[in-house]
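ugh ok so i messed up the first submission bc i forgot one of the chains. this is the corrected input, ALL of the components this time, i swear. 714 residues overall. if the numbers dont match what u have on ur side tell me asap before i send this to the collaborators (the ones from the other lab, u know who)
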Amino acid sequence: MIALRLWWRLLRRQEAQRLTIALTLTAFTVTTGVLLTVLGGLHAFLGRGDTGIGSFYVVLAETATVILMVPILTLGGAAARLSVARRDERLAALRLAGMTGGQVGAMAVVDAAAQALAGAVLGVGLYLVALPGIALLHFQGRPFAWAELWVGWPLLLGAVAGVVALAVVSAALSLAKVVISPLGVARRTTPSRLSWLRVVVAVVVLAAWAPLFRTVTTVAAMTGILVVLGICFAILNLLGPFVLGVVGRIAAGRARTVPMLLAARRLVDDPRSAWRTVAGVTLATFVAGVLSIAPALHDATGSRGDAEGAMLGTDLMTGAILTLVIAAVLAAVSSGVSQASRLLDQRDQYALLHLAGTDLTVLRAARLRETWLPLTASVAIAAATSLIIIAPIGIPLAWSDPGGVAVFLGGIVVSVLLVTAAVGLSQPLVATVATARTRARDEALVSRTS
Amino acid sequence: MAAGPSLTRLLIMIDTTPTTQPPTTGHRSAPVISGRGLTMTYGSGPSTVHALAGVDLDVHPGSLAVMGPSGSGKTSLLHCLAGIVRPSSGHVQYQGTDLTTLSDRLRTRLRRDDFGFVFQSGQLLAELPANENVALPLMLGGLSLREAVGRADVWLGRLGLAGMERRRPGELSGGQLQRVAIARALVTEPRIVFADEPTGALDQRTGAEVMGLLEHAVVATGAALVVVTHDPGVARTCARTVTMADGRIVAEHHRPQAATAVAR
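and heres the new structure output, hopefully the right one now
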């Protein structure tokens, strides 16, 4: 197994890759940790029984799990891509040096799998650390017992294996181009515009919503809610990338500063990936938006003296906020990782822009804006869509109890702050990358004598 | 960019005290920039490397090629003159100011406003169309997107890229990419253009074409061009060539007819 031996030898000479590896590990750790935490929550609700009101909780927990699966898989995929992406150069060089495509491929896949496994094990640790915190939350009037949140060994090992499998598959897919050609360089061309069909479908569905709602209430409400949520997510996913592309095009035309222009062009270039990064926050914002009427409903049910109904209202909101916070954490890590890996991808351009007289502050501002623009646009889309959805029930309900609105807005603010903070953490990288070129020369000059 | 350079100069005057001009070397015009006693050392003790071991150089309007084998100090000299790095000792005089005494912030401003740069490759942002890539330095100087892109289009036209303004770097050939880079270097109407192996990634023929364009365009604006290269063909395009070895200038050569001899 030549590939395996060479991989091991090269592994110990990767000082330059340390940062990338740290980012990849972080992403895999958070992916696994959050996955297990979410599954633990679902496990707890399943354990509390699915009879009577309990079945409603199970449905809600399942919904939250589905919402969070998208960002979890996105983050896992980003981690896998990152584990391979920065190695393209080295792998192409090995290929030129005479390694076969199969050997290079095997080496890269082993590399990705090893990082995924390390990250997944750390993720299990993260899950165990998070358990006591989650256990403090009250649902159905009582906190969770640790045993309720413990997913059990089979599921734990399954999650770890799943993350590793995800990494291997995604590494193999993104490697295809390196294996095909040692000189293969991805060239970027004018992006194809997303079809207007997306908008047409979305508008038709949203327009049909209010009349449909009246029929839905008469049918089984439970399945109705799930179907509606599914349709809404589909609409958001259809509409999101398209609207981001349009926002980017408009912003590019009106850009007054270089950071604005760069952020807008990034959106035009790849609205889908910009969307994926913030999708979790968007979906959770949507859910919180819909549930902003919950406190009002809660008041209504509470006044009826129905204790169980009152509890349900509170729990709905707790669950929505919990989902929003988890989604925000995922989006924050996703944004941080994707910003950092984009920076590494563009390090030549950034270093040369800096040499040619671009201030580091401009480059930092550009990175921040690249995250803010899609985030704020997506959250606005989600908030607007959720308003349309609650319109038939009554928008005034959201206002009748200020608690709902406060929680809704608070959730959004927290999400945006988290994402901003994550990007902020990656900002020191800008200086490192921008001055890397002259520093690398210095090191090369010094090492020439030794 | 009328406001940019003067503001920078004002800042420099506030920031530093002007020093005396370096001695002239009998050239017709005064030098645009001149280096005196430039040294650049790395490491210490027995492993000390002298990238520059005492270089004096006056750069005048027109084209200057800096030749030499790899490791001879060409790029270190360019970095010192352009204010990208500070030399270990020596001075760089530009507009009555010693660049080596300026803060990093001011040198960055100076590079943006007064100098233009062309590198071997990789300087264009893949997401931006050609004309927005060219417009970047103007926007950094405070111009609106519309105005900056307007000027960028003019320069792209001059460099033979009319009709390709909205293409993105991925849709352009190597030679076309370098023309875009030249347009970006010239769009701010710099006094000096620094080029580090500008044809290094191109084939012989395209390289000669691009180099001819670069030389013509810079000389036509009355600016100075400093090209670092190891390619004698590139050096032949320039009116003056200095050759470096082991961190020193070891030969100098004038070729007054160079500019007219270039085949376009």
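quick check: Confidence is low (pLDDT under 50) at residues 180-190 of chain A. that seems consistent at least. The longest strand of chain A covers residues 138-139.
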